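REQUEST FORM: STRUCTURE PREDICTION
Request ID: SP-0412
Submitted by: Lab K.M.
Chain count: 1
Length (residues): 548
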Amino acid sequence: MKKASDLFIECLEEEGVEYIFGVPGEENLDFLDSLSRSKKIKLILTRHEQGAGFMAATYGRHTGKTGVCLATLGPGATNFVTAAAYAQLGGMPMMMITGQKPIKKSKQGRFQILDVVAMMGPITKYTHQMASSDNIPSRVREAFRLAEEEKPGAVHIELPEDIADEHTESLPLKRSHSRRPTADVKSIREAVKALENAKSPVLVIGAGANRTMTSRMLLQFIEKTGIPFLTTQLGKGVIDERHPKFLGCAALSAGDFVHRAVEASDCIVNIGHDVIEKPPFFMKAGGPTVIHVSTKTAEVDPVYFPDIEVIGDIANAIWQMKEDIVPNGGWAFDHMLAYRQAEVDHTAPLAADARFPIFPPHLVQQVRDAMPDDGIICLDNGVYKIWFARGYTAYRPNTVLLDNALATMGAGLPSAMMSAMVYPDRKVMAICGDGGFMMNSQEMETAVRLGLNITVLILNDSSYGMIRWKQANMGFQDWGLTYGNPDFVKYAESYGAKGHRVESAAHLKELLAHTLSTPGVHLIDCPVDYSENDQILNVDIKKLSKEL
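STATUS: Completed
RESULT:
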């Protein structure tokens, strides 16, 4: 007979779990005691459950394996809700384990007791309360299977303390080996026929293509056919954006140069489309042919109802299409590529503007110049995300971690911490607004304690800048969105990190070089000039692209 909490840890070891992130409570103490004896799993104690959840989700995003996090009942479990939604919408495999009072007899009435399983239901793929220790192996295996199956997401298991203390003869289950099904040959033929008959086809690369590592096959397809491509925000980096057939990233909702390129197409191949992202194009009756290539059939809505669906493993589907297609000598792409050139020509002088406080397009260029090819930037949420999505050239998959799904504030720092743990030899930078940084800034202590090498770049405008931009765009008065900040340099130093403050554009360049080449946790307080956000993003770009 084996203690249930020991069995639970053995099941996690069997799944290949490396870390458990979290904040334990008294209802987790059996689990914690069992974890203390594990030789394979390391506990990462965080300062808030939300940070633990964001770290577990980012582990899933990088590795494709389920990240695991731990919290107690009640307030610990409720603090996981945002992280659960972040993982669920963002397609990141994550397991949450929460404690609970004894379920067979009450010790303290209803103190701290919530129906956590019901609460997690709408925002997870699977949620379950353990009512018998004998079922632990099958429930853990099922949770991991569902977390990792396309589309990946969040799962939750509640382990009550009386169940954790039971004894059982059950044994861990082995992981199953499975492959995604391949797309039907007839659907491939239909898609290829539509492409061969088109005049100006285009590829749109979305979140699913980033998750399932399709880079190699997609690059071969583009090289053979010469068909140009654009990305959604979550599709950035699948193909090196220095490629001559790159048309841009659909960062704005509409009216950008890249949208003009899509509008010029008569056949759109939508690869790894995910409905959680703002669509890079809207379908209408009589519009271009749309081919949906994904692991799942399309969720139809008023602006998305594809003509042809190719369902199966995305990389294999693209390979099949590449093998079958005969490039059409009559395809015309010059007009699409001209839109991209116009965007590059518009951005270049903005990126060269070395004013102080720092101008966003210049900041994006400085960060790109400072980061190596495999360097990872982890964006929190704010208006700078649009500048980086548009202007930061991604070279490799999962080197630009931005969240265009839940788009939550507070995830940038934990996401960078996890990136630095998964890839200790790569340069990692968290890019946060002052608002988003302060939502989980306490994790600076965790980063210092873990001895991580990260740079935290704070774009400081003493306001919720994204909402101010929208407020101006809607013609409302500037009101209700400004605040004061701590001295970020002293704040960093109080945690044992190194603090720096940008004094000029030239100084920013020096600081980025210094912090990326010096070990430890660095924070850079960077004043930013957002005064032209509305003019450039809402007026100039739309006017210039429309005139082309």
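NOTES: The radius of gyration is 24 Å.
Reviewed by: T.R.
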